[in-house]
Known about the structure:
The complex is a heterodimer of chains A (242) and B (611).
Chain A: H1 2-20, E1 36-49, E2 52-64, E3 68-79, E4 84-96, E5 101-111, E6 118-128, E7 132-141, E8 146-154, E9 156-157, E10 162-173, E11 185-197, E12 203-214, H2 216-224, E13 230-241
Antiparallel strand pairs in A: 1-2, 1-13, 2-3, 3-4, 4-5, 5-6, 6-7, 7-8, 8-10, 9-10, 10-11, 11-12, 12-13
Chain B: H1 6-10, E1 22-36, E2 41-47, E3 56-59, E4 62-70, E5 79-81, E6 105-111, E7 116-121, E8 133-139, E9 150-159, H2 164-173, H3 185-195, H4 197-210, E10 224-227, E11 236-239, E12 246-252, E13 259-262, E14 268-273, E15 276-283, E16 285-288, E17 293-298, E18 306-312, E19 318-324, H5 382-389, H6 396-405, H7 410-414, H8 424-428, H9 438-441, E20 488-497, E21 502-505, E22 516-519, E23 523-530, E24 536-540, E25 545-547, E26 557-558, E27 560-563, E28 568-574, E29 579-585, H10 588-593, E30 596-602
Parallel strand pairs in B: 1-4, 3-8, 9-12, 11-19, 20-23, 22-30
Antiparallel strand pairs in B: 1-2, 4-6, 5-7, 7-8, 9-10, 12-17, 13-16, 13-18, 14-15, 14-17, 18-19, 20-21, 23-28, 24-27, 24-29, 25-26, 25-28, 29-30
Helix pairs in contact in B: 3-4, 5-6
Amino acid sequence: MTVKKTACASALLLGATLALGVSSFASAEMKDDSIMTKFMLDRFETRHQDGEDVLSWEAQINARTDYQGMAFKTSGERLNNGPTESAEHQLLYQRLVSEFFDAQFGIRYDSQPGPSRTYAVAGLQGLAPYWFEVDANLFLSNKGDVSASIEAEYDLLLTQRLVLQPSAELTVAFSDDEEIGVGSGLSSAEVGVRLRYEISRKFTPYVGVNWEKSFGNTADFAREEGEDTEVGSVVIGVSAWF
Amino acid sequence: MRLRMMKGLILAIASMAPLGAMAGTYDLVIDEQIVNITGKDKKAMTINGQLPGPTLRFKEGEDVTINVTNRLDVDSSIHWHGLLLPYQMDGVPGISFDGIKPGETFSYQFPIKQSGTYWYHSHSGFQEQEGVFGSIVIEAEKREPFKVDREYVVMLSDWSDETGDQIFANLKAQSDYYNYSQQTVGDFFDDVKANGWSAALKDRLSWGSMRMMPTDIADVSGYTFLMNGKAPETNWTALFEKGERIRLRFINGSAMSYFDVRIPGLEMTVVQSDGNNVQPVTVDEFRIAVAETYDVIVRPREDKAFTIFAESVSRTGYARGTLAPREGMAAEVPELRDSLLLTMSDMSMASMGGMDHSSMAGMEGMDHSKMAGMADMKGMDHSKMAGMADMKGMDHSKMAGMADMKGMDHSKMAGMADMKGMDHSKMAGMAGMEAMDHSKMMMGSSSANSDYAPGSGLTPEAANGGKFLVYADLKAQTPFADYREPDREIELRLTGNMERYFWSINGIKYSDAEPVRLKMGERVRIKFVNDTMMMHPMHLHGMWMQLDKGNGRFSPLKHTVNVAPNTTLTVDVPVDALGEWAFHCHLMYHMAAGMFRKVIVEEAVVPAAAQ
């Protein structure tokens, strides 16, 4: 399902990028202004937690020139042989705003059981000093609720191919949206450590651990629904790009 | 792969006698064929079935017609690198002509107005990387100022089993794709052991704050380095008889690779660079930038084999051949030297722009490699060393120690030429330095003439501790007739973004840039300021660049000049060729990414005043 979705999105992205007319081929011989596409499967993993296995993914497709273009991001979880628990898709216009960062604007649509939300998104994605890959976003939902998330990753090279990657993601909500179980304040945190082996730059299996916790009102909502507020898991997966 | 270069190469210069009006016709066919260089069959692009293409031997004064047939299924072209010719014959698609369509033949016609060693290559896509290149040898009309008994072309190149498109896409998608010598946790602890926690950590933080890597020497790895199309183990061999003078015409036809070239056991006398005769200078080793040429004369006096060793500056491999009195001989092949590490000296202020001031605070963050420039200080007497030692700390109070050095006697200063380096670039980013008097820092009256930023990690050293060629050693054989002050100066900052693999000039890529406009007859000084951490071999088509290294009217004429990281290099261009010309970094993927300009030479409205 994911694959089909991304293929669709990919076509859409290319179309959108071309439609923007971002590229004028000043010289057929030079490739300095061409559109590049990159499909990044950052994580595609099985999370083994409390007796159940969950499939989790995080991917991004870029279709862009050096300066601007489109991005499609998708992430989510589904139970093995079960329904999708949560999925988040973003279609964004991105534009280089500094040497290392792109500003991104667009929409996010969450598909999950129960009520869903659509959001306007504004964010920054890039490489922060000291080699932190950062993705920070501000969301405004169609119900008027504002939330923010920041995700950071760091690569620690044990050898040229064996890389330990700690990562963290924090989500903050500025108001309650009880219907979807989000309470104001720090709503959730996710921390992970993954050890990957770069068979090639483009294909990297990994193992790791991941820990998620919800806080404050969000945790209260979860408890009311009878859900866990803290989940630890052992993960095994692959990342790839092409 | 079948090469039939030997026949042409073994020919000595039989006759120097000038001939009358000559006309020669040459045919080149660009095609695809399977080659096997690394043990894997791979499609390459060849010229007349060869890789590299055949050596074209012209005579000065000859009118040549070169019919180039394109049997590829994409457009192609041939550019005559370093030749002075009408711009329509220069072979750059989109600038000089429309390119050669599949199945078509383009007839290049131009007079040969120069002599020396040159080369030719495709200027379309990444075809040069895939095999469309070859050498040009032009016999001089007049007697040359040196005598040789034999001569060989030594064409260096880098071969990849990947296509140029794949390599470029990989670099664009992940700029460190090919860097498998990045600093690991283990390296960090080695540094801790050598320099202490604080120094090791500060070093990592200062690189991290810039999001740059000291191991970024070359963008692409995985190359097999070739000498005249042969891999090192195939051992290209040039024969000699003991006592003969042998002219080796080194050409760097690589897409991305610089080489440090030496022949252990033999001195090399450099007599020509980029086709122009220079006053002979004897060296043990020289660095050849991409697209440069150097002609050297060697004279083996023993009946034994010598290794021609061209070590890639990335230290990931070497091209190798043998000078031997008989076929089938080999000499010892040296080990690769340790890889070079960039230092803070290789960082310009511009590239440090985003840096956190505090992170630069202490120079003690310097690791050993950065101190390299100081190695020569051993000649100093002890009391003065103390002042130097203080430099490590580099805080204000310790600068006094630096001032002391002024008092050193001259002989000792000589060895310290590199100390200069401790000032400008390295200090630039340092807190508290503002208070310092720059003039005091400018010690070491005699410049080391290095082509690299003082303290640069790229500064070459001869493997045998001997003489390494620097640009200032290149003095033209004859003074330049129209040597004068330039009429104006154009500053070209070489810029880029390593992380995103952007390369540009003055921050603007080719596709967004206005052409550089020059007037016929003017003399323009071009000031290259390298704001990046990489070396850039800058190549101007159609006209010479007179390399300004303080040699006045003996400044040599070059078609390609290497601009080292965080340095400024000036060249004067006698503008003497109307038309539209290409001007670019000759690293193939930098050029493709946009480090490129069109130069338009227009008729001067008012004729330039005669000087």
